Fold these 4 entries.
Entry 1:
Amino acid sequence: MSDNASRPIWPFIVGAAVVAVAVVGFFLARDLIAFGRPVPEFPSLFDAPDPSLHGTVAYFAMDAEPKTQVNSGCVRVIAAAGTPSRDVLCLTEEGGDIGPQLEFLPDGRLQVTMFSRPSDGPLVVAWEKIVDVATGETEDVPAADLPAAPAVLGPMVTPAGEQITADTQGNIAELVLTDADGAARTLWSADVSPEYSIEAIWAPHWEWLLASDGRLLIVTIDDPVRIRVLVEETGGLGEYLDLVMYAVTGADLLDGESRS
């Protein structure tokens, strides 16, 4: 009988098992480390307003301590500089509506759209209001003029052909600016947890980016790039994940108000 035939195979089995356990342990440890990564930290525009930033952002602010068990909150507009801000329309979840989706019109008024989802089907428009940010007056949009579907995310390409891409691959998140010739510049990159996601659009005057990662971030692309937190947390009513829950205009709609 040869030496190979008489040699026991259990050491090979044990060795393979040890290697397999080590590999599995490595990936588990890597994933646990990734899950434990904190959300990237940036300076706050509330703490240090920047009057050189022009524009206005709208978002939905949930009530931190609702008076009833029904979720509620208000559509809020805030200067891109970090202050001032103002609530322009308050809503509750009592009617079962989903949203709001927000969009600034060319004249500076804010379009607020709420949806419903009948029988787990696609979202359909429930109602829509136009809000005059300056006066607080609202106008109901007639049923015949309601949109057929939710709006898409705002502009990601400038007239000069500069395109912003926000992406998360594995545990790496990044913002990349690509010019019209295809040259790419990484504006920001960070190790993040698997749950982290980010998206970004241009402000209509193309001076800065508005990014969303659960917060609202102002990104100025000069060298060096600066990322600052405008809003610490955004929200919505119902199952609103399909909707654009914020809007931006290049106009200073709150100009002249106290920046306290």
Entry 2:
Amino acid sequence: MNFGTPLIRAIIFGSLLTMMIPSIICSLFILFYFIRFREVLKRLNNHIILALLLINFIQVISEMPLTLIMLRTGFVAIQSPTFCLFCACYLDKFDLNLFDWLFNVCTPVIISTIATMFLIIRILIQKRRIGQREIWRRNRKMVIQLISISIIYMVVWIPNVVCHVIPLIVSSRLPCETATDILHYVQYMPALLCPFLSLIGLPEIRKSLKQTFTRLNHVQPLT
């Protein structure tokens, strides 16, 4: 399948744009809540949420529009050698491509996988201890939240790693081409889903968000 055809680009464009708009709205709502109610940021676990949210929000509002323009028009938005150095053009060079794959893709995936497994094992051990059960109840939502984000990250990036390893074992470029065509756009999923997963450990913001939607959907009776 040729992912460079206008039809396929239109499908990917529509899918990403449909997820991008709610993701930005949710991120802005959470950030506004953090700014307005500073006491929420006093909790240590919310510092992690804020850091993840800001990093992914910057990626969504800075990188994704350029990708959407390329999908919509079929051309790169900024066509200059300087801009190309900051984009995926450097992947045409084997040494830079290998460095990027090892340190920016493979290594984070391995670390994230090991850390998530370690966290799950530690949780299971703590739940068996009587004295640790109360700690688990207090931190349950935060742990579920972090594990959910880690699992989304691994689900997206592990296939990318596998598809690049297969050509080293078998003489076929199809897996790598598939990774380039499909997984290049799937990698935006963690950034797009991060605001919604962040709400798991933010009950105050969920309540405020629900109240906001309730007021917006409330129809005033005609007088």
Entry 3:
Amino acid sequence: MCSSTHLRFVEVTESTLEFTWVPPNATVTGHRVMYGQGEATEQLIPSPDPGNRSALIEGLLPGVMYKVEIITIGFYRESAPLVGYNTTGEYMACEIAIASNDVTVNSIRITWPAAAGAVDTYSISLNPGDGDNPTGSVNSGAAREYNFTGLTAGTLYTISVTTVS
């Protein structure tokens, strides 16, 4: 059986790959979609119906290149895989909020929205790392806020909040 052709990724997000293909001019009884990092070892369940020409893989990691294989199944044979590669989108950073009443001469209080997906803790850091508490950790169930103290007035600081799962 001939392979499907024209694999095209139509929508890519940080956790999904959606793609289309053109099946061969033959009787198709099904498709097997395989995917994975490096090698395509995971099978998309449920498999696309014989008449489908598209599929959506969900639950992927952000910023990772995935290999996708589409195997077309006929009555007595399977095709060689149609192979494509694509990278999921990078995780979009959220905005850290700082209200004017959260800033003093030597301290700052930050808040942030909940991250999508499973999060155990948030790792917080300040650069340059001076002050009393330049790094910290906040459990996912706690209030999403952190106070930096002992800072130097007139210093430009970079603050980051990173999820840890």
Entry 4:
Amino acid sequence: MTTTTALTVTDVADVLDKAATVIESNGLHKGSLYRKQRGKARRRCAVCAQGALNIAATGSPLTPSEEAVDPGHPNVVGWHFALVISANQALTYYAGIEDVPAWSDAPERTASDVVTAFRAVEDALRKEVAA
């Protein structure tokens, strides 16, 4: 039997921090979760904001439901899926981003915009925990 821990606000802040770092290192892609690049692992390719959140949570730009994190333990996949959904909800609540993929794909959106939003929401969550 596999035991998973309850999702915390700190977990969500951590995934936003990691996702910002993914965008900084991999670059921003628009139109799909990631840009396929010959010879590069998916986790190293340029990604959209949602792909970065997925990498931060699972190591893959695909959503946890598309690619099992651990096929033998589907509850672990569910935990990672909940983490990604919670990060999306935090972006909606704290930054007003209703649809992360559409927001990320907007023509005017830059990698800096994505990183700034992720870090601002991360900071708000950490302040909430500290309060």
